[in-house]
Amino acid sequence: MERSELESRIKKVICQVLDISEDMIAMDNHFVFDLGAESTQSVELVAAFEAEFDIEMDDDSALAVDTVGGAVEYIGKYV
Amino acid sequence: MSTTSSQAPQSGTPEKHALDGIFSPQSVAVLGVTPTPGTVPYDIFHNILSSGYRGTVYPVAPGKRSICAVKAYRYVLDIEDEVDQAVIVYPANVVERALEQCGRKGIKSVIVISAGFREVGPEGIKREQRIKDICKEYGISMVGPNCLGVINTDPKVQLNASFARKMPAAGRIAFLSQSGALCTAVLDYAREKAIGFSKFVSFGNKAGVTEIELFDYLHKDPATDIILLYLEELRDGRGLMEAARRVTRGEHAKPILAIKSGRTPQGADAASSHTGSLAGEDAVCDAVFREAGIIRVSSIEQMFNSAVMYTYQPMPSNDRLAIVTNAGGPGVMATDAAVGCGLSIPRFAQSTTEKLKQALPDTANVKNPVDVIGDARADRYDAALEAVLEDPNVDQALVILTPQSMTDIEAIAEGICRVHENAKKPIACSFMGASDVQPGIQLLQQSHIPHYILPEWACEAMSDIQKIRHWRQQSIDEPKRMPVDKATAERIIYAAEPGYLNEDEALDVMKAYGLPVPEHRLAKSVDEAVAAAEQIGYPAVLRVVSHQIIHKSEVKGVALDLPDANAVSQAYETMLKNVAKMAPDATIDGILVRGMIPTGYEIILGGKRDPVFGPTIMFGLGGIYVALFKDVTFALAPMDEGTADRMIHQVKACDLLEGARGGACANIDSVRDCLVRVGQLISDFDRIGELDVNPLIAGPAKIGNMVADVRIRITE
Q: Could you give the 3-state DSSP secondary structure of residue B92?
């Protein structure tokens, strides 16, 4: 998958789960500090990424990813 | 610490203080607010809004337009106005980023609620250090992390920056706690008892603001009369002592009552795992609190019982208590309790007895404790209470009521309230029971008359007030410096390798500091030993000297009461053989020769460099009784003579020294002198890790003392 497509789909998922607009999101954004994710939403994000990309991630390591760019790198290994 | 640049609301504090921004901010930003009720971030923001806060509050909630209809900001840096205080509720891993932004925004007062710092282990300790560094860089005063928050009930501020369920009532008591969870329980307890607070602070891991800065702030806070403290961990024992002395003495003295948990080794372990605490040695803590004027209490109940007594009632001039009761048994119990905790039960003046006889039936007891008899109604209570309060031999009164069928509880309570209005002496009540007496208790509490379910609790509270009174009267002098030969001690101590000094060296150090040591010589041959004994005189004592031998008796390295040169010669040879056999690896540096020490009371003077308190001194019954009876007490070194004197009088063995049961009196002046000198010694030399003068033989007054054995452990 092209990186640009991966980034775009990841941003779309983040927007849906956190209920924010896409123009808020930058690659170096922290899910909690910059995008306002609550602890339960971190779990929702992992589930939504798995559904979006039809993958199954290791929960502990997936939850340790705390930035948008980190999520792109991490999910990129699965797709 | 820095002061806030903004104009803080008039919280009642007359002069600017570094913590004004914590207690009386004009504006507060809450960083990390979420829109989900029932979560800490939401509840804190909601509490500030709903507590009636007089300033402006800004929610920082990335991705949210508003929280509770208040415009939200993505970052604290986006807020256009100046912000006095930030409350950070983000998860621990982003607190640094939030704090950094607070620093850039110019916010000087921050409360970090978030957990996940030193209390969780090595990673948390590093994280905590990083936020401390940020605070230092930007001059931020920080409360927390890992705390419940801060409450100021001042009507001009009305700030509840905490996740406590409700804002407490305004009152004159400040409560400080290292445990956040305890705070919520205390708030609930206080509400039930109609107790109000001036300030309420949970300071958690105390990475920034500690109890010491809080003492200083509250000392100057006109809304606070008394400070209550719950502490799990002490880090700066001397700082605490100095700050507490400033608060508890002088013109605007305010008492401090404290619970220091971790009294038992098991409790200390629990404290370690709870807030990452390392509890200091409890006995030392006890002594330091005593010398700092902090009243150490054992329970929340006792803490508030005593605080209410102090806050609502005048200070009694002395310890004499009158008891008025309608039941004999509780009167006797109260008398026992009062005497047990140091109060006295005086005889009434003749005029008082006459008044009581006129007002009470013949069957009543008109002596103290006054029994107004079970069928007493309000008139008898009124008359008895008025009479005893007018008595010149009475300093305070305790009214006990048991609910009998004819007892008019509310009328009696109303009568007590009327008497209380004009009384200049403290009154406490104990309406014993629960349900029937409740309406009376409510009336008493409304009139700010302290009420205790059990009369014993009332006595305990009154006893604590006496401790406060005594402390204010007690003189404290600067530590005394004795004339000593410091150069000689320095030469020995700095030449030594880490480990124990040899006995001859240790005795020389003691001698240099003016302690009475026996005349001694170090002999390296039989001839030298005999010559030394001839010079010193008989009977002689031989003691093996070796860095590797601590317990000389265990290797047969002590020979006593040697009458002549022949005995010294034989003992010398035998000792070398025995020691060579029993401690073959030990290097023998020689044999110490000295005279026999006259008998006397065996006491111990110990010294230790405590990680929390620094140099501390122990005094008590010595010799083999140290471990057996543990009749010892502690104080910080160096010390003044008054402190040394109090140490001597704190141990049970003091009675022996003062000649109990016809025994000889020891020279207590000389013992006090030794204590001050040992305190000076350990304070002067950081290399002394521990020292034990055990025993110091305290001989009869005319003879004085003699160091019989001493060990000094030198550190790196």
A: helix
